[in-house]
C-alpha cells in the first residue's frame, strides 16, 4: 500500500499544473474505462491558456471561471483569501477527490501565538480543512513534528482548535508513527518519516513565510521537515539539498503559502511583534518551487538568491519564475 | 467504622494518584488543579521549611488544619488520609492475614521510639540550616519515588506492551490498541516517556520501604515516619477518639493487638499508647467480647505515650548538630558546580536548600523532562534537589509550571514574563566541537532554536570553501551573555549529541551573587 502510493506519486510528472495531474483513483479508473477516462481527464485541462494577468482577474466575471496554475490573493480575511486562491487554481476538487485521506501540513513548529507569525495562520489551515471536506475527502488530518513541545505548539498556535472546529482530526506524531523509508534523495537516503504522511492520498502543504537564520527564508519545501523524524537537525548541514529531497519525495499536491503575517527577522520562531509585518496575502499553487520563488519576493529578495529554489527547479519540481504562464493576482475588498 | 476508614483511604489514595497524574502540562499555562495539595496539608513540610528558612508563608496555614484535627482525633491522617499509609495498609493486610494471636504479632515495640528520634534529628538539623525533612517526609518521599522511580518504569512497561500489540499487526486488535494508545498518551500515561537520572536508586529505596511491611505491617508508619511522630506528639491527647479497653470484659485473646495497624497496644487494658494509634478502629471491630470502645473523652484511658528516653532524644538532637556541618563539609563546595543549573525562580542556593523538600513535583511537571534530581552537584546536603540537565531537556521559554507546583517556595512563584528575564545559566560554544568552527560546515541549529525575541545566539558570517570545494558562506554561532537566559534548548538540540558543542553552565545566573561573570551587566 505504502509503496503503491509512492509509486503513483513518482509516476506523475512534476512541475505541471495540478489540474493536469491524475490522482491514483482517477488514473486507475481512466485506464479501465479507456477513452471515456481520457475524456474525463481531458475535460479537466485548462479550457483556455491562462492570461498574462498582472492585474486582478475579475472574480465572478460572466462566463466560465478561468483556471490558473498560481494565484496570489490579498484580502483582510484570511479565510476568504484562502478560499479565493484555491478557487482560482481550479477549486479544491482539482486536488482532492471524493474519499481521499488528506494531510494538511501547516507549520506548528513553535510555542508562539498567531500574532508572532512563527506558525501558519490558523484561519488559513481551517479554511483548507473545510474545503477539503467540502470536496469530499473522507478524512482530513493535521499534524506536524514541532521543535518545541507539541502540546504547547498545537495549542498556542491556535491551529489545533481551529482545525478541529473545521472538522479535521488533529494528530500528534508519536514515535511509533515514524517508519524508516528510503527517500532516494541526493543527500537524504534512509530516513524516519511520518507514516501517515506517506499513506495519505493527498498532502496539502501550508507553510508560513518567515525569516530563517540559515536558509534565509523558509517556505514550502522546508515545511516538509515537519513530517520527518530522526536526527532532523543534521539536515542543516545540507539544507537546500535536504529540503529539495523532501519535496521530491513527498510531492505535495497543493502548496498554500500563508503570508497573512510574515516574520522578517529573528526567525524561524521570532517572538517580537516588531519583526512581524501584516501582508494579508495567501498564495496557492501545485508547484512548491513557484510558491517559494514568490515567497522570497515578499522579503524584497529574488529567487536567484536562493540555492534551494534553483536546486528545486533543476530537479524538475517546479519553476523559479512565479510569474510564468497561469499566474494571477487578485485583491479582495 | 473500619469500612468507613478503608473507604477514606481508598478515596484519598485515588485522589492522590489523580493529582499525581495531573501533575503535567494539560494545555494551559496555569495548572487548573492544586496538584501539591497533600504537601500543603503536611505539617512536617511546613515546619521544617519554617525552621530552616525562618520564612512564614500563607500556604502553611493549610497544614494548621491538619494540626487542629490531629489535636482532636490523633493520627487520623496516618490511618485515613496518608497515601503511603494506604499503600502500607494494603501490603500489611496480606502480611497480617497469616498471623495467629499469641504467636508472632508482627510487633517490634522497642522500635516505636525510632521515628521520634528521626523527627528530632530532622527538626534540629532544619533549625541549624539543613532541611533534610524531604528525605523522610512521607508525602515528599512518595511523590518523589513515584515520579522519579515508579512512573518511568510503569510507563515503559505499559508502552512496551501496547507497542508490541500494535506491532503484531493482529487484525482488528492492533488498530484498536493503536487508537487506545493514542488516547492514553497524555491522559493516563505521561505525554512523553519519562526518563530520570537515579530512577532505579530512588525506586529501589521506595520498594525497600514497602518491603518492610513484611518485617511488620506498616513498619514505616509505626517505627520510622517522622510525620507520624509529629502527629503523634500533637495528637496524643486524642480527645475525639480514645480507645478504651474494659478490663472487666477483656478475655485476653490478643486479637486486637494483631489487628492494630499501629503498634498502640490496645491490650493489656490500660496500656494503650495514644501516640501510636492510627485511629483505624480495627481493635474495636475485632474484639469478640466487645470490651473495646472508642469514645470522645478527655479522661485518660491508657498508659500515655511511649517513653522516649530523655538521653536518647538528646542524643538524636546532638547527632543532628554534629551531622549538619559534617554533611556540608563532605563535599566542600568552595565553588559552584557548573552543572548546578536551578530552575528559574529558584532562590539563592543557600536559601533554596533550606526550603526544598525534594518532593520531585517540579521534576514531574517539567514539560521537557529537563529537571532531574542532583547526585553530587549540590553537595550531599542538596541530594535529590532539582537541576536542569540541558542535554536531556531544556527550559521551555513560555512555561513556569515548576514554580507553580513548589510547595515551599524554594522555587518562588514567577510569572511567565518575569521568568523569561531570569538568567539560569549561560551557553558557551565549544569551538573544538562546533561544526562551522571545527569542520567548516554549516549548521546553526542552536541559533534557530534560541527562543529570546532578540536572539541570544547570532552568527558571524565568513566566506569559506566547503568539503566539496565550493565557495560558501559559513555561519558561526556567537552567544550574547546579556541576552542568553541559559534555557539550554541550544544544548538539547545541538546535533553533536554526546557532548554538545554548545553547553550551558550555571555561571551568570540571576539568583546568585557569587556566580557572576561580568563586572556590570
**Strand runs of chain B, count:** 8
Say what oligomer this is: heterodimer
Structural class of chain B: mainly alpha
Annotated CATH architecture of chain A: 3-Layer(aba) Sandwich
Termini gap of chain B: 65 Å
Apparent shape of chain A: globular
Number of helices, counting only DSSP H or I runs of 4 residues or more of chain B: 23
What do the pLDDT scores of chain A average to? 84
Gyration radius from CA atoms of chain A, angstroms: 18 Å
Low-pLDDT residue intervals, each spanning 5 or more residues of chain B? none
What pair of chains forms the biggest interface? A-B, 28 and 37 residues
- CATH fold assignment of chain A: Rossmann fold
Count of β-strands of chain A = 12
CATH architecture of the domain at 426-505 in chain B: 2-Layer Sandwich
Number of helices of chain A: 12
The largest β sheet of chain A comes out as: 10 strands, mixed
Write the topology of this structure:
The complex is a heterodimer of chains A (333) and B (521).
Chain A: H1 2-11, H2 24-33, H3 35-42, E1 70-74, H4 78-88, E2 101-106, H5 122-134, E3 139-142, H6 150-156, H7 159-165, E4 169-170, E5 178-182, E6 190-194, H8 195-199, E7 202-206, E8 208-212, E9 216-218, H9 220-223, H10 239-250, E10 254-263, E11 276-285, H11 288-297, H12 307-314, E12 327-331
Parallel strand pairs in A: 1-12, 2-3, 2-7, 3-4, 7-10, 8-10
Antiparallel strand pairs in A: 1-11, 5-6, 8-9, 10-11
Chain B: H1 2-22, H2 37-40, H3 43-53, H4 60-73, H5 76-81, H6 83-97, H7 114-127, H8 133-136, H9 138-167, H10 173-184, H11 199-211, H12 219-224, H13 226-234, E1 242-245, H14 255-259, H15 282-286, E2 292-295, H16 310-330, H17 349-355, H18 361-365, E3 371-373, E4 386-388, H19 401-405, H20 416-419, E5 426-429, H21 435-439, H22 445-449, E6 457-465, E7 471-479, H23 489-493, E8 502-505
